[in-house]
Predict the structure.
Amino acid sequence: MFELGKRQTLLVVKEVDFGIYLAEEANASAEDRVLLPKKQVPAGCKVGDELEVFLYKDSKDRIIATTNTPKIMVGEVGKLKVSQMTQIGAFLDWGLEKDILLPYKEQTGKIKEGDELLVTIYVDKSSRLAATMNVYHCLSTDSDYQKDDMVSGVVYQIHEHAGAYVAVDERYSALIPKREMFGNIKVGDVINARVAGIKPDGKLDLSVREKAYLQMEKDAQKLVDIMNTLGGALPFTDKAAPELIRQETDMSKNEFKRAVGKLLKNGKIVIEADCIRLAE
């Protein structure tokens, strides 16, 4: 049985002017043979030899073999570059003569020509190979990372309620929960993060912020810098709505209050009824 999108060892059963035919058995019928074009045939290859080939479909939707290996195969995850944007989707360079299609419905964020995308390859309902940015089901959960380890990964999807899905090392399943979503994180970003926790199933929870006691130092300095740009005062206090605090400082309300408390304890600020200002 031919397996699209994978490498397979087949038997040379017939030679023709334009290449050789391969099959699983020497007496296979014409319908159970696949062509390896002449330019792909290794020197000295003859009937009865075995060849390892990759199977895909040509521009006429026929199964065809190649001795070349694409950058990623079915079920594998990797980065591919957008070579062309069209009305039906994006075409990605995967190392073969024919680029592979990434349909619009399989895109998880805005993309453009030249972007490098984290994708996997699958066989669609029409028995054609295609790419998808939905790589969740292909990622592993058996990493050796421990809590508080620093990791690097690619953001491949952002969910309004859950947070940002990340492929750590382009291999392991991870999530930046919504409560940890600080800054302008978007699909395609390569982020450095801390392992904040490990779920029972092995999936990683990440944070782009330091441990609380370390982050508090940075947040306190950040507030001082913000106040300096605003003429020496913030036009709200720690009683402001969490949404306003996050919008203006990119901190949660708890983080903001911790930073304010540190500055107040060190005598660097004064809290008034409607503002926080730098101490003179």
The CA atoms of residues 58 and 64 lie 6 Å apart. Helices lie at 212-229, 242-249, 253-265. The chain has a mean pLDDT of 90.
